[in-house]
Design goal:
This protein has 161 residues and is of the alpha+beta class. It has a domain of 106 residues: 60s Ribosomal Protein L30, Chain: A (2-Layer Sandwich), CATH 3.30.1330. 39% of the residues lie in helices and 21% in strands. It contains 4 helices and 5 strands; from the N terminus they run βααββαββα. Strands 2-1-5-3-4 form a 5-stranded mixed beta sheet, sandwiched between helices. Helix 1 runs antiparallel to helix 2 and helix 2 runs parallel beside helix 3. The N terminus is likely disordered.
Amino acid sequence: MRCLKLWHMITIRIDKPGTLAELRACYANKLNTVSMGARRKANNAKKKFIALVHAQAMAQGKPIDAKADAIMVLCLCLPRIDWDAPVKAICDALQSVALGSRDDAQIKYAWVFLTRPSKRKKRKPYIEATFYNSRSERGDALTQCEKLLNDCVSLSGHDYL
């Protein structure tokens, strides 16, 4: 008798240029600015980004159970950004798609990997988030992280890590 493994992970890919451009508008750290106009503009950009993600994101898999803690593995291939700038906007946009609840506090563990797009190597900008159930898929998450780390190191040209 074969034992079937139940997969609970979900992978979401965002690669539409318009959606990625809207992300740049909302992570400009203007959400905490003194100017009401700049704050309003950033909040509107964040709402528009979330709506675009819901309409255009390509998801594979089932959402994580609302009672389970989640592991998020986020792979960013974005030009000239700080690695932490878009993470909160991405979590807010993906929480209703990837998690069984509408609260990103369900994400207890997270890894973020950053590479840069390259015209010469035909590497286009994208965001790929994979969510795992922390109770049953820790090994799968670690395997994915090891693969992404090796990919990021080889793309950077730093073979000594």
